[in-house]
Amino acid sequence: MSKMTLSTHPFLLGFDQLERMMERTKKSDLGGYPPFNIEQTSENSFRITLAVAGFAEEDLSITVEDRQLVIRGRQADDSEGRVFLHQGIAARQFQRSFVLADGVEVAGAKLENGLLHVDLKRQEPEKLVQKISIKRG
Questions:
Q1: Do residues 104 and 120 make contact, with C-beta atoms less than 8 angstroms apart?
Q2: How many domains does the chain have?
């Protein structure tokens, strides 16, 4: 017996994109660096907060492409000429990806006290009733 998926189920037509999106999110690691929170700030809005201590605004980039929110951080190496007796603060780059549902858009971003806040807002879909005419064959 073959495995039933979203794209092969007879009552779920056109959900193959959802299945691809789920495969893409499975590849994303929920642990790792930098740590982050996701909170619901109202019924239709969310906030992703990343701990980005040591990163300046120009070290960070936020893009949305094909419903995927990508947050990247890259610090310039300023350790040249410095002698460290101990170096425990790593200047490493990162990339975090989040898949956004249809209708969810980035409302804004703010860097505050070493935390990057990315606000998301879900647009209310219009209630649409469509009458389909039946033609005689």
A1: yes
A2: 1
Q: Which residues contact 11 (CB under 8 A, 6 or more apart)?
A: none
How many Å separate Cα 67 from the centre of its chain? 8
Is residue 10 included in any domain, yes or no? no
For 114, the domain range is: 31-78+86-122
Model confidence over 44-68: pLDDT tens digits?
Answer: 999 999 999 989 999 999 999 988 9
The SS3 of residue 137 is coil
User: For the domain that residue 59 is a member of, what is the CATH number?
Assistant: 2.60.40.790
pLDDT at 1: 53
Q: Is the whole-model pTM more than 0.90?
A: no
Q: What sections of the chain are H helices per DSSP?
A: 16-27
Residue 121's beta-bridge partner residues? 45, 105
User: pLDDT (tens digit, 9 = 90+) per residue, 74-109?
Assistant: 988 777 888 989 988 777 899 999 999 889 999 999
Name the residue among 37, 79, 86, 76 with its Cα closest to residue 55. Answer: 76
39 inside domain = yes
CA 125 – CA 128 distance, rounded (Å):
9
